[in-house]
Amino acid sequence: MGTSLLGRKVIAGITDKEADIAVINGADYFGNTKKAVKVLGGMKKFVPRGSKVGLLINSAFEQKGAYVHPDISLSVIEMCMKAGAEEVLCLQVIEDAYWERSERYEDMKKLFEHVSQVQSNTFPAEFNDEDWKLIPGIEGAVSLEEVEVIKALDEVDVLINIFIAKHHAGTIYTGALKNSMGFCTRKSSVFFHLGSGERNDPEFLAQCIADINLIRQPDLIIGDATAFITTNGPSGPGEVRKLDKVFAGSNLVSMDVLGASYNDMAAEDVITLLKAENMGLGPYDLSGLNIVETSL
Fold first, then answer.
1. How does pLDDT run across 30-89, given as a tens digit for each residue?
2. Strands 115-117, 87-90: parallel, antiparallel or unpaired by DSSP?
3. CATH number, domain containing residue 267
């Protein structure tokens, strides 16, 4: 897919139509993230004062290009606190080693006094009555039957999905939709991959990913296209493409279509996007969206 599907690109502030997606270019990923959210209206638009914010961050890999750059995540946390959030909850356990990859971490440690984690949500996550609940059925789901998800989905006032736009061997592309599997236990994840009777059945896996996103959709989505693997995903090592882009929006499908385009993938070739679009989770045709792209 070429840039013909990327909608109308303008410099921030020129158009009178509110941006659907903001794309910020530059080597300062912390600043890029702040600017992207600012273009969308600022973090206060998404995070009310006194709210509890849940972050789903794709952080659990070691190879560069396989995890969200920590400067992006730190920028989101700082913005949430400045907007007046009472608490920031990481919906999966994030190891200290992830944060330590940022040169800003030591200077920003004080922020973490207001950051907590769902301690039992680390791979392979197992069900417990305190942190998890069983959903016997999802309204509108096609393939996903009962599923075990973290209770925190019901407890946070704001949900922010922070993903990296990279290759995935099973789904071709991983992004915001796929990141939502982080809500689930290992048992449920195994069903995604084996539930059809065929291991990693691409149609079934894609449908389950679309289904899980019916439970709760994010209020804000941040995409990392700074440096990402285009082969051997999700863990790498693989070929790395460096675009120095941070992008932000609020629609799962639209954000993933754009992320897939950075991998030179056509949206119609990513089955997850087709399934999600068919279920009303968003459009994979971006031509009608206002995509504001600028540099920091």
1. 999 999 999 999 999 999 999 999 999 999 999 999 999 999 999 999 999 999 999 999
2. parallel
3. 3.40.50.11440
